[in-house]
């Protein structure tokens, strides 16, 4: 009986610690996705400037070469462009994709949809650069949040596990 109780307490401690680590990882994932998006937008800008490929082809190609969540946005946007304009497709893809981005991050990405496919190459490139600048700000903010909250949630999960064990003993 005592062995079962010790096993259950250990299970509670491990699960609460893992929950804390899982919550803490969201901050890391957000930062990684923002940095990935900034890099991909730079690639998109270069492809628009130098290859003159259609935007849907560029989006699908980038989507296949990019990490999971950010690549999904580009693949969806490329697919949606069959039925919608480039701006509408981008907006719909950003809003329907599953990412770790906050509402502020999504709002920054939606700014790109205003001029996407509606202006000349230089207008689109300038809009991408504006979006990259806003993303840089979001990356700095995400880094600060990660530094502040990641350690907090890991320790909080462990502490809550210990508190529950002490209460149950």
Please characterize this protein's 3D structure.
There is one protein chain. The chain is mainly α and 169 residues long. It has one domain (23-168). 83% of the residues lie in helices and 0% in strands. It has helices at 2-50, 55-65, 68-80, 86-96, 103-110, 121-168. Helix 1 (2-50) packs antiparallel against helix 2 and helix 5 packs antiparallel against helix 6 (121-168). The radius of gyration is 21 Å and the shape is elongated.
Given the C-alpha coordinates, what overall shape results? Answer: elongated
Task: List how many beta strands DSSP finds.
Answer: 0
Rounded radius of gyration (Å): 21 Å
Query: Could you give the distance between the termini?
Result: 14 Å
**H/E element order:** HHHHHH
Question: Average pLDDT across residues?
Answer: 88
**Alpha-beta classification:** mainly alpha
| Unreliably modeled segments | none
Helix-strand blueprint:
Elements: H1 2-50, H2 55-65, H3 68-80, H4 86-96, H5 103-110, H6 121-168
Short description:
The protein is mainly α and 169 residues long. It contains 6 helices and no strands.
Q: How would you describe this structure in keywords?
A:
single chain, 169 residues, mainly alpha, 0% strand, elongated
């Amino acid at each position: 009986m005592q062995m079962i109780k010790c096993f259950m307490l250990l299970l509670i401690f491990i699960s609460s610690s893992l929950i804390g680590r899982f919550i803490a990882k969201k901050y890391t994932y957000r930062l990684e996705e923002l940095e990935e998006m900034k890099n991909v937008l730079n690639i998109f800008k270069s492809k628009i400037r130098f290859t003159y490929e259609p935007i849907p082809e560029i989006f699908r190609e980038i989507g296949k070469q990019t990490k999971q969540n950010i690549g999904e946005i580009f693949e969806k946007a490329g697919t949606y462009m069959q039925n919608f304009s480039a701006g509408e497709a981008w907006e719909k893809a950003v809003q329907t994709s599953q990412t770790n981005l906050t509402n502020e991050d999504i709002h920054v990405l939606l700014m790109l949809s205003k001029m996407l496919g509606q202006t000349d190459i230089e207008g689109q490139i300038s809009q991408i650069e504006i979006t990259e600048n806003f993303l840089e700000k979001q990356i700095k903010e995400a880094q600060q949040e990660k530094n502040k909250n990641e350690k907090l949630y890991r320790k909080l999960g462990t502490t809550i596990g210990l508190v529950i064990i002490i209460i149950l003993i």
